[in-house]
Amino acid sequence: MLPRFGGERMLEAVRRPAGWRFAVVGITLLAVAVRLLIIAHSHGGDDLRMYTYFSRLPLHGVNPFAPPPTGMFPAVDSNNPPLEVALFTGLLAIHNSPSTLRLLFVASDALLLLLIGLCFPRTRRWRLAFMLFYGFNPFVLFSYTAFAEDKTLLFLGIACWLLALERDREWAGWAAATALTVFKFLGAFAAPVLAVHSWRSRHARALLPIGAFIVAFLLSNLPWFPQSLDAFSRRDARLAINPPIHASPTLVLARIGVYAPVEAKLLTAVGIAAVFVLFAARRIEVREAVVWSLVAGYVFLPDDAFNRLLLITLPFLLLLDLSLWRWLTVWVVSCVAALGAVVATRGVPHELSAVAGPLRTVFAHESTLRHVLWMNLLLALVIAYYLIDRRAGRAPVGGAGGSLSGAR
What we know:
The protein contains 19 helices and no strands. It has 408 residues and is mainly α.
């Protein structure tokens, strides 16, 4: 009786606003502690080393977009927007260590969990399930914390963007889109959709946020200008990678002999245009258009790794209300994907050495069809849930056609 009584008291406490806030903060602090433990026992991946290398160059008076030819990384890898480089440079000027950037990514994850727990207009059951998934799922932790990816910042921006659109906060939506564009070019994928959305509700007054978006993007390229413009051509050059690498779905096309580098540009453009047409025809709402624009902008790239595929998977979860069994399926698939990612990139863990052979056979290594299958399985599952729920009128949640109209 005592455990049951204690459990009931705990549930009753969480139902109260103050108890819920305490639970949200507690989960966030525990998630931060897990991330700090991972940081203490890992060194990040190549992306972290690139962030650190190019962002350290300005500290020595070197233009990060004109790096020395004998440096740690070739110039083609200096393809991030100048504002991201400037932010990282400023942080490294305070404490010149890769751990400084990793702590920024942890802080971003903490803000995301607080945003979900305290601000998203969903049921507490929904918010708790999402917080537990993002806070403690092995695939998320391995992809973003062990490898130290700036995609934690991007997903925070995406969540803010979708929340602003759901609450019909036009300027906040444009601010999020602008931040994602100047920081990683990400918001540009859905900028046409957002422009039409604003024009429908504000008509000529929509020109103000649209103009501010354009001006901010132009000004964001001023640091280290004109060499900063080389980031565009260098990113474009990566589209010429052939055959595709990592976990890119286009690797399947290459293996059956129907892939050419021009397809990456063509399919991306067609995908973004198709999303725009669907939105313009009022077949999908604005949040769906944003999420699908992100998918179209990324999924056909020839250098997609599992961390990027996870980035375009997570926004769908913000549009769905998953049942317990669906959440369990998502957890199982993502945990299997995490194991596959570990085996492919870091080798078989020592604790599983007894089954090392079968694990290598099942998961293989990067740039293989098996790796592509495992790393895209979570994305395929979540999209399937989205399509099923949308057909049944249960998605997207939180909007006019969703099943959740507010927090309860």
